[in-house]
Amino acid sequence: MFKSKRYTKARQLFQLRYANEWTGGLVLLCLLAFIGAIIEAGVLRDWLTPAAQLNIILPQTGVDNLSVGDDVEVFGINAGTIQKINVNSDGGLTAIATLNPQIKTFIRRDSTVIIKRKFAVAGAAFVSISRGYSTPLNWRYAVLVAKTEPNPADQISQMVLQIHQRIVPIMDSAKNMMASLEMTAEGIQQGRGTIGRLVNNDELIRKAENMVQTINNVIEQIKPIERNINQVIQNSNQAMINFKKVSRDLSKASPSLKPIAKNVQEASAELPDMMIQLQSTMADLQRLIVQLKSMWILGGNGKVPHKMKRLHAREVRP
Amino acid sequence: MMRFTNKLSYGFTLFLLLSACGVSQNEPPKDDPLERTMNVAKQGVYYNRLKQAEINYKKSYQYALTRDDRDDIKNAGYNLAVVQLDMNQLQQAYDTIRKVHNDLYIRNDDNSPELDLVEAAILYRLHRENDALRLLQNAEKTNQDDIQERAYFFMGLIAKDQNNLSLLVENSQKLDQIFKNNKKAYKEESWKADQGELHAWLAYKNGKYDEAITTAQYVEVNRRQQIEYRAMVRALVIQAMANRAKGNAKQAANLLLRAGKSSALLKDYSDAKSYLSQVMNLHSDELTYNLASQELVSIVQIELKEKNK
Fold it and tell me: Which fold has domain B188-309?
């Protein structure tokens, strides 16, 4: 009735003939945009993708207070929780961890699983999985073996034990060494051995002093010789200066040497011929002398004396 | 002036004419290198440059082999061996003799009295008297008078060493025979000395000591003039032995000391030591004894030095 009155009192600005249809369409459009945004944000995908499940075989030595609901970290990122801890039929323990499926790509066969505590020795336990690089796991039944992180307190006590084991023999050796040193010192004090005699016997010192004195005397005697040597060196220097002068003169004269050498070469080339001529002349002269000797006018008998080629038998001496 | 020039030209022409009458010029061509090396080596022997002589005789021997001349091979080889013997290189001299024998053997000439003489001298020095005697008996058959004379002399020396008086007399007589038959013998001073030495030994062996001394003195002088000092030493030893036999020990010691010193300088150390030891055994006087002992010590030192080299 009211509606009808308002319609009736004021004039309608424009007519909404399809207003309801337009409103419904707008709502539908908003719904579509919302669904698209959800899809685009991946929320739906996350909802639709099932969580990855990893079976962790726990160490026989103990689970180090690991319990259901503890965190699982993959190279420092919180990637899931321990969903369940099962006791196997063989007495072993297996933890089932649910992990973010996106993290599956980082966990491979060579990933190590270590059970740690939040504050090294205290705090809640958690499982730390390192990043792997080898072949991917079969995620239908993925299994990794876990280890517990060594307790730092145990490590420290182990280290102390090792130090103890090593220091004790060293201490024993030092003790023995000190005893030997004590004995040696005692021996030196009593004048045993070379060092002992050196320490306790003044004679050696006196000898050494005498030796030093002798050396000093020798050095004193050498001093005049040294002066002579200096003189010799000065003379040598002078000789070297003279030699330099001579060599300078020689170098000045050397241009003349070449023609001289050439002349000598030319002259010496004729020497063999001259030698032959000389030999020939000598032979002729020898013959001439023999002939002259044989002339009757010079007391010869006109016959050339028989020349014996072999030495006279008187040269054969017993 | 003109007249003088004419006389000079006539005189020179006459000289040439007379010279042409002297000798003929028909000489066959000679192997000059062989002639030259033989002459140089001979001069080396004459001037007592034995090393030079040895080198040149070696060259001559090579030339003779090249020439394939049997006489030249024999002469050069003989000369080389004689020089090596004079240098007291007994082993080298013996090797040379063997080499020459081989070279002559392939040239169908195996008989060489001169080589036998040199080999006998080598063996005599090595105190192999019997072997030397066998070679000398072959050498004496030669018609080369100097070789024959030397062979008789060597045989006489061996006879003296072996105390074979008959052989000594035989060879002494053979030497005397040479002087009778060969006019040339009186011109050969060395032959006279050889004859004198055998006579001196013969006189000594027969107890004629004065005659032995006188003859040995002549031989000593002759050998010294002939520059045959090794033979001169033997003459001194004959005098020493004769003086000792006469009882003149001092003179004997002096002569033996002189012989010992000369032998030492000739590097005949074995003989020198023997003579000096005899001086010391004679005990003639202190000075002679001391001199002999000093000389003996120095010889022993030289021998040790040479052994250590």
Answer: 1.25.40
